[in-house]
Amino acid sequence: MRFTDSTFYPDVSPGYLVRVIHQMSVAAIDKTLAADGLTATQWMTLVSLYFDHADTCAGLARKMAHDKGAMTRLIDQMEANGWVTRQRDDADRRVVRLSLTEAGRAAAVAAKHKVIACWNGFLADWSDTEVEDLVKMLQRLRRTMEESDACAA
């Protein structure tokens, strides 16, 4: 299916659907992790650090599509909670590297199990093949978007 003026509306728009699904998942994860004193955004940051996706505020902001200023404030909170440490880079003192503390690693792992249960609940009536296909399609879309300049003016 290719979109046309007559076939493009919110319920079939990939952007709209992904955005709504993201908002719903963040709300569910916020609720799931509330008792642990974690938000979904904090958890995503912990996991990004845990899996070495980035090690600076700017890198995390890029990787997570998050505002740099908001990311700095988030890291401030996470540092105050004892989950993250900051350290100046030896080679370039302008760069501040982030790393998880032991408490941060423990929080990331504990939260991961709750998030897994949450997603397994959402996908309970999906077959393993359907879940695998969904993930493959989303990964393909991400790669296509990363490599494309289709929307360039």
UniProtKB/TrEMBL annotation:
Check the record and name the SMART domains matching this protein.
Answer: HTH_MARR
Q: Which keywords accompany this UniProt record?
A: DNA-binding, Transcription, Transcription regulation
Claim: Transcription is one of the keywords in the record: yes
Task: Enumerate the GO terms in the molecular function aspect.
Answer: DNA binding; DNA-binding transcription factor activity
Q: What is this protein's record name? A: Transcriptional regulator SlyA
HTH marR-type domain: from which residue to which, for each copy?
14-143
Xref: InterPro entries: HTH_MarR-typ, Tscrpt_reg_MarR-type_CS, WH-like_DNA-bd_sf, WH_DNA-bd_sf
Q: Which organism is it from?
A: Sphingomonas jeddahensis
Q: What Pfam families has UniProt attached to this entry?
A: MarR (PF01047)
